[in-house]
Design goal:
Number of helices: 5
Oligomer: single chain
CATH topology of the largest domain: Double Stranded RNA Binding Domain
Radius of gyration: 22 Å
Number of strands: 9
Order of helices and strands: EHEEEEEEEHEHHH
Shape: flat
Distance between the termini: 31 Å
Helix content: 25-40%
Largest sheet: 4 strands, antiparallel
CATH architecture of the largest domain: 2-Layer Sandwich
Length: 184
């Protein structure tokens, strides 16, 4: 569903942006904390799909080391956004995934994205530390989306016959090979 210019401006203001100027029918906004800038065409009733998109965000996560070397991770700005990992690397990967799920739910409910806290304003308990988790909603959606794309490719006929005889799923093999090659 398209978003109106007024809805986009309200969204920006709820997320720390303030109007800094207007040039013709475009309003320009700047985030008070991050200094990121954006503009909204105010002449449109509905903003066309694809006109607006999430930029990279950096959410602070509280990492709590556990006795067994694992980490519990909590995002103080996103309600219920908690995970854990066996080690630091795994905990970061899990943090990225749970943040993506949490923000996707918020977006689907058409709620405002949580305002990002300044790391220095977060109160920590003994042993806890802050890790900024970089998050790009567009990239997350592309990676986790299940929309199939048809691809036409060529392989030798003898290879095709062997694969069919073994009941191999070509799409599955191609997906697995691409993930391996791209280290995903």
């Amino acid at each position: 569903m398209p978003m109106t210019s007024k809805e986009m401006i309200k969204f920006l203001e709820q997320n720390g942006f303030e109007e800094i100027r207007q040039n013709g029918s475009h309003k320009f906004f700047k985030n008070k904390k991050t200094s990121r800038k954006t503009s909204v065409p105010y002449h449109c009733q509905d903003l066309p799909r694809g006109r607006y998109h999430m930029k990279k965000l950096f959410y602070p996560a509280i990492f709590q080391p556990e006795e067994d070397g694992a980490f519990t991770v909590v995002f103080p700005d996103v309600d219920g956004c908690v995970t854990c990992g066996d080690n630091m690397e795994n905990a970061y990967e899990m943090a990225f995934d749970v943040l993506g799920l949490g923000l996707t739910v918020i977006e689907e409910k058409k709620e405002a994205m949580p305002t990002v806290s300044a790391p220095q304003d977060i109160k920590l308990k003994n042993g806890q530390f802050i890790v900024l988790v970089e998050f790009d909603m567009d990239k997350y959606k592309r990676k986790t989306g299940s929309q199939a794309v048809k691809k036409t490719l060529s392989i030798p006929s003898w290879l095709n016959e062997e694969a069919i005889a073994k009941g191999i799923n070509f799409s599955s093999v191609l997906q697995e090979a691409l993930k391996e090659r791209l280290a995903l």
